[in-house]
Amino acid sequence: MRILGISGGHEPDHLGYPRPAFNAATSHDGAAVLLEDGEVVAAIEQERLNRLKHSNKAPFQAARFCLESRGLRVDEVDYLCFYISEEWCDAQVKRGLFSKGPELRTANDVMRRLVLAEFGVDVGPERIQFVKHHTAHAMSALIGSGYESSLVLTLDGCGDGESGSVSIGSGGELRSLRDIPERDSLGNFYVQVIRFLGFSPFDEYKVMGLAPYGDPRRYRALFQAMVALLPEGAWAIDFDKIADLHGAIRPRAPREPITQDHKDIAASLQEALETIVFHCLRHFQRETRQVNLCFAGGVAHNCTLNGKILRSGLFERVFVQPAAHDAGCALGSAMAVHARKAPARRMPAMSHPYWGRHIGERGEIRRALDAWRDFIRVEELADAPKAAAELLAAGSVIGWAQGRSEFGPRALGNRSILADPRPAANKDIINAMVKKREEFRPFAPAVTEEDARDYFDLGGAETMPFMIFTVPVHEQKRQLLGAVTHVDGTARVQTVSRRMNPRFWQLIRAFGDITGVPVVLNTSFNNNAEPIVDSVDDCVTCFLTTRLDKLVVGDHLVHKKPAPLSAYAELVPSYPTFVKLLSLRGPTPGGYEVERAIVTTYNDARTPVSAEAFEVLWRADGRKRLRELLDGVEDREAVIAELIELWSQRVVRLLPATDD
Questions:
Q1: What digits encode the pLDDT tens for the residues 456-487?
Q2: Among the options 10, 28, 352, 556, which is catalytic?
């Protein structure tokens, strides 16, 4: 039995700001997952393919990847699953029926129309399945854990009008204990508070990293007034009282300096979140006597909270779904339908997330790299892990791309930036070279599974393969691991198994043989403007537009070559399908002024461009080289330089020509 699970929005990349078919909650972190007889055979987030972070577009590219990776047509799939309940979706369709046409009366009609428009196939109404949002979250964690029985907690912003659930999972089935209403959403609570700190949705992990710099006692009373802990593990949030923060601090604008006030607010927020979650867990653990916990939903990406749950002693084992955000609902919805349709066939536990696009075989990689020959020099490697380890030990910061990409938000050794974890200065160096992010945010260590306990307190966990728990670094190792030890003495650890990822394990082991420390700094391979890289071209683009020292792709070591502007003129410019060119003429005090900009269709953000660059992009068709488009441009070098900068911001694409 083949099942395709999907999550995300409904509009193609090229359309404007989405008017979701069902609900605003169904328009971020799109993904597709393919199960064959209960086993995951392909899974990828839409953002890896369309290069739009937290993509709110329909996950058609992701679905196509899953199907094509197995040589399938959409009509060869038994069920297509969507991660919101049919009742909820039907209600949303009815509210907006006038804009959808009289023939689209149900959510099933809408889904079939989307599939027909994209794939040219009417799959039939019986093959469209809907799964309640928090059931999808819960099943992704329960099945992923492999536990026979467990308490299952889900917490996020919202989905189906709810913000979480508590259930007992047993034998692949769920028995609901409580649905948590949206009015008490911990995800929404967290997001509304971090706005005072100058952060936006999807920045929650930044504030988690900021919290250890603060003192939670300073604003504890304010947060206690926002939250009421109720009997039987329940709580209530008074969102109106969040406004009382105005009396405590002046809200920070983005890019303003972060003060101790902001750090203390972050600490108090983290403490309030932990207090609520533990209040819930203690009650349900007493009531159910469950010794295992499964956790999913966006709140489950709070690795600090996860680490404290793990070390609390409340549960013997804790599994947190590594794709705990809405992309994981594509996985969970497929799992739920499998459990519903084939209950006798048990699904395996989640042992790794390497289900994405393969970086390519040796010959494919070399051909892709050779297309960039004006910018890079390529060296064949006999032992890529050893060569990479030697580079790290010598002080290089490298991009590392191997095998199939990871499903989920973490780079777990197949699309990673790697560095020596020992010099504390490497945090600032990598931020300056690549990430361009806040200096307070920590980097994570990857350690061989066999050596992990020598450096980190894993508590009751045997392994931590998914970088989803923050745990203490042994005190005597903190100074040694200066680049990956956070200010509070913790680290977000990934243990690497020789069986699950042999090449990454070999690299870390080789680094340990050279330095005596079998640990590397591991962060996602991307800059601050893009999702994690996926293809060879993505890798080279990031390599060339950052100050990374070297790139290792498969068995190839890539060096940068000095490239004159004339070399860039041989590249082919285009722009992503999720951006549009905008030219507006309007009155100003001095007359009329023309505004020219690149506009992203998902949030209306505008990047100004010069008249000359605008004209070049207007004429770009994805085939002509830049030099062909520069005819009549007076300052060609200035336009090329401007396009290179727009390329580094990922609102313009520059790729080698394919007609040589």
A1: 999 989 999 999 999 999 999 999 999 999 99
A2: 28
